[in-house]
């Protein structure tokens, strides 16, 4: 990755082993190791490593925790808003082999998103093939594009990814309340708006959650 110190330090360690006497090469390798070990990059990577593992062993104030919880299966998902972020979320779900309903506001934006998503999936399929993995992007049941909220009636998860406008988001979540089944989890990708306020417009505020992806959503692991 651009700006990452470790590849350069590895190169310099190998270079020292080639051009310097053994004792000097070992000292240089130790010096480079300590530089990396005390760097802010090392601290950040260590933090991410442990944070990822701690997050898997969660506990809620009501007593529910990771060992006893029964996860709700996500057999089908939907993404509303197919801009750059929405496109990445769709690609992530398809890569996870979760059938997706992708919804846009009009035909023009839907067609633009469809081309971009299919191109991204083709690139991902090629990369996976090179690693000995498969991604069948031509499965008809895996991805459905639509303008109709009615197509969301049987999804288990909705992720809203429209632009940051409270009025628009409330309008969408009001529709989702009417269309989606009672157990559907309604997620918003908002980064700054009040999720409680968004949830208040629905008939199931307890089912509304924040699902903020980091861009590009199909590359970044953090959510």
From TrEMBL:
Organism name: Micrurus corallinus (Brazilian coral snake)
Name of the molecule in the record: 3-hydroxyacyl-CoA dehydrogenase NAD binding domain-containing protein
GO cellular component: peroxisome
Keywords (A to Z) from UniProt: Isomerase, Lyase, Multifunctional enzyme
Location of the 3-hydroxyacyl-CoA dehydrogenase NAD binding domain: 76-223
The keyword Zinc appears for this protein: no
GO molecular function: (3S)-3-hydroxyacyl-CoA dehydrogenase (NAD+) activity; isomerase activity; lyase activity; NAD+ binding
Superkingdom of this protein's organism: Eukaryota
């Amino acid at each position: 990755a651009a700006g990452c110190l470790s590849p350069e330090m590895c190169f310099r360690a190998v270079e020292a082993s080639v051009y310097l006497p053994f004792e000097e090469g070992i000292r240089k390798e130790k010096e480079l190791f300590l530089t990396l070990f005390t760097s802010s990059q090392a601290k950040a990577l260590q933090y991410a490593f442990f944070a990822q593992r701690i997050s898997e062993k969660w506990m809620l104030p009501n007593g529910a925790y990771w060992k006893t919880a029964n996860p709700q299966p996500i057999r089908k998902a939907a993404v509303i808003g197919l801009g750059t972020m929405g496109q990445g979320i769709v690609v992530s779900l398809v890569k996870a082999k979760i059938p997706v309903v992708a919804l846009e506001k009009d035909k023009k934006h839907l067609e633009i998103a469809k081309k971009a998503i299919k191109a991204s999936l083709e690139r991902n399929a090629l990369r996976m093939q090179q690693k000995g993995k498969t991604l069948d992007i031509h499965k008809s049941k895996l991805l459905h594009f639509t303008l109709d909220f009615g197509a969301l009636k049987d999804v288990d998860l909705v992720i809203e990814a429209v632009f940051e406008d409270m009025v628009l988001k409330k309008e969408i979540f009001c529709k989702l309340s009417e269309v989606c089944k009672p157990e559907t989890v309604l997620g918003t990708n908002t980064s700054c708006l009040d999720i409680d306020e968004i949830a208040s417009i629905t008939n199931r505020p307890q089912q509304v959650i924040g699902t903020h992806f980091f861009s590009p959503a199909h590359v970044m692991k953090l959510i």
